[in-house]
Amino acid sequence: MYEKREMNTKNRNESVGQASLKPVGQASLKPVGQASRLSELTWRRHLPHYQLSSGYYFITFSTHDRFILHPPQKDCVFNAIFFLDGKKYELYAAVVLNDHVHMVINPFEPLPKIMHSIKSFAAHEINKMLERKGKVWQNESYDRVIRNEDEFLEKLNYIA
């Protein structure tokens, strides 16, 4: 279904695989507790979205009407994800499946801005590649605050 790949600069210049992981030792997680402040609670469409002042997130977003992403379109999604790594977030893992994407990130910017950047860039490239117009992504995305190291490892294992 997907292939694991270590994330590094060399891989980003190759034909992109379908799953990427950073070595776990690069994350320094602190449990989310009372010290972490909820900086924003928003409702975008139907789901609540919590944005902490700092923290790690497991994010899932899906294609519109279960549009199937084939390998060239998956590469477009990975290119968008990798391009923003180090600029808008630190990426720890990502997998692009046939109709949805999972990521584990530590954001530097609000999640809505990050999701807009990834989705809009990838959608533009995919539509250009397929010579079509229209929606590629569902409007909503699912984000979950990762509360401790065990949950962080659980999400990495789920993606891998």
From TrEMBL:
All copies of domain Transposase IS200-like, residue ranges? 52-160
Q: GO MF terms on file?
A: sequence-specific DNA binding; transposase activity
Q: Which InterPro entries match?
A: RAYT_transposase (IPR052715), Transposase_17 (IPR002686), Transposase_17_sf (IPR036515)
Q: Name one Pfam family in it.
A: Y1_Tnp
Q: Where is the composition biased (Basic and acidic residues)?
A: 1-13
* GO terms under biological process: DNA transposition
Question: Segment Disordered: which positions?
Answer: 1-20
Gene3D superfamilies per record? Transposase IS200-like
Show the PANTHER family listed in the entry.
REP-ASSOCIATED TYROSINE TRANSPOSASE (PTHR36966)
Name assigned to this protein: Transposase IS200-like domain-containing protein
The species this protein was found in: marine sediment metagenome
> Source organism lineage?
unclassified sequences, metagenomes, ecological metagenomes
